[in-house]
Amino acid sequence: MKDVAVVVVTYDAQPWLGRCLESVRGYETVVVDHGSTDGTLELVREKFPHVHLVEQENRGVGAGWNRGVEETRESWIFLLNSDAWVLGDAIERLRAFGEERPEAAIVVPRLLNPDGTVQRSVRGFPTLWRLATEYLFLRKLAPRSRALNAFYAGGFDHDEARAVEWAMGAALLVRREAAQRVGGVDEEFFMFNEESDWMYRFRDAGWSAWFFPGAEVVHVGGGSTRREWGRMFATQVQSHVRFVRKHHGNRAAALTRVVLLGSLALRGVLFRGERGRTYRQAARALLR
Asked: Does residue 28 lie in a domain region?
């Protein structure tokens, strides 16, 4: 028994899904599909008949993860993006690392871009100051500084195993016991910050999240969101405000909204074309 089940949430993921599922062959795998119309379902049924396919309404990534976890029974659940694939025995390495640390609720691998370069995936929890350093370009002044770039874990070199605040959800090994005690993913986060909120709750309950570079996963990065990036960026900005409200209160959320609105308005003026339109669209979404 490998004691690990794999959960992949899909939505029109056909270009990458075959490689993703091939990389986890041999593990119990659940694919939760959110209404794909691009041949994703046909690919799973024809090429991966051993995979348990679940279809449900698209209520966001977190809802897909929660459903996938419910469909499995193993002690560990490996949540893998549909545009990512595992290298070698990375899952076993993550599991072994987690077993040595009983306080670890989540263990994440080092992510690589398709060209083999490191994809910086470790982050700091969103706060008013950290979001200001990002959206007002302050982190550009000292990108390796924790003072000005804690949001992107400035100075973290992704070469050493250590406890982290949170990491991108492209590949997460989750301890079932911890998830049962803390609860599932908050489905109010349709997309973005669902993993940071989960890891914040794990931390508050006495668990920890660990980064382990001894296991690697290739992640296309934005492969599943790039086609609708304008709408997705607006969702991301709104999720920052939601996170701050949930964990730091209404006053902090109101101030965060003001800072984000101001920075997006400025960006909408400074940048032309599609990029400028994206910033203005995100500002309008915050006003709503």
From this structure: yes
Do 243 and 108 share a structural domain?
Answer: no
Question: Both 196 and 237 in a single domain?
Answer: no
pTM: 0.93
Q: Are residues 162 and 207 in the same domain?
A: yes
| pLDDT, tens digit, 9 for 90 and up, residues 243-278 | 999 999 999 999 999 999 999 999 999 888 989 999
Query: Are 93 and 136 contained in the same domain?
Result: no
Q: What is the pLDDT of residues 194-251, one digit of tens each?
A: 999 999 999 999 999 999 999 999 999 765 556 667 788 999 999 999 999 999 999 9
Secondary structure of the chain as H, E, C letters: CCCEEEEEEECCCHHHHHHHHHCCCCCEEEEEECCCCCCHHHHHHHHCCCCEEEECCCCCHHHHHHHHHHCCCCCEEEEEECCEEECCCHHHHHHHHHHCCCCEEEEEEEEECCCCCEECCEECCCCHHHHHHHHCCHHHHCCCCHHHHCCCCCCCCCCCCEEECEECCCEEEEEHHHHHHHCCCCCCCCCCCHHHHHHHHHHHCCCEEEEEEEEEEEECCCCCCHHHHHHHHHHHHHHHHHHHHHHHCHHHHHHHHHHHHHHHHHHHHHCCHHHHHHHHHHHHHHHC
- 34 with 94, same domain: the answer is yes
Structural domain total, the chain: 2
